[in-house]
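Researcher: Next sequence.
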Amino acid sequence: MERPTPSSSFDSPDPAPQGQASPEEAPARGAHEQGHDPDETAALIDQLQSDIERLRSERDAAEARYKQSLAEFANYQRRALSNEQQASAHGVRKVLESVIPVLDHFDMALGQNPDTASASSVIEGVTMIKQELLRALGAQGVAIICPSAGDEFEPTLHKAIVQQPSDSVPPGRVVQTLRQGFALGERVVRPAEVIVAS
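Model: Next structure:
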């Protein structure tokens, strides 16, 4: 009795379906498909390096501008402080120059012989000193606030100390100035103290 001949399917694997790679060909084809073109990779690296260099250059330029701005601002602060100090010193010098003559008049008045000086001469000397002082203050922009009787009361310039009836002054107007005020330019340093008619 003859034995059946083994099927040829056990002798060799079935051929791969048409269009499908065999197991031996798949890894090689996959490696080829997933790989990158060396020229493209080199170009990409060159581009990245160029971008890095450009960003570094921009960073360095921005840092230089920042440092320059800091230096210019520091110089501006120094100049502003120096100008302020010079202006202050100039103002003090101008005031001193205007007050020195007043001090000279004080020395002249105090140099009089008390045994021979009369009351009228002393009063005259004090009056001259006051006038000189007022001229010095006026040279620095100081104005005197001294309303006359009958002037309208102005709250920005005057300070009402007392209100009292008056036969000669209408209500709401100045009756008398008790103490004169002073203004420096547009700014009131001290308002005039007055009596106001009620």
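Model: The beta strands are 142-145, 158-164, 174-179, 181-184, 187-190, 192-197. The first strand starts at residue 142 and ends at 145.
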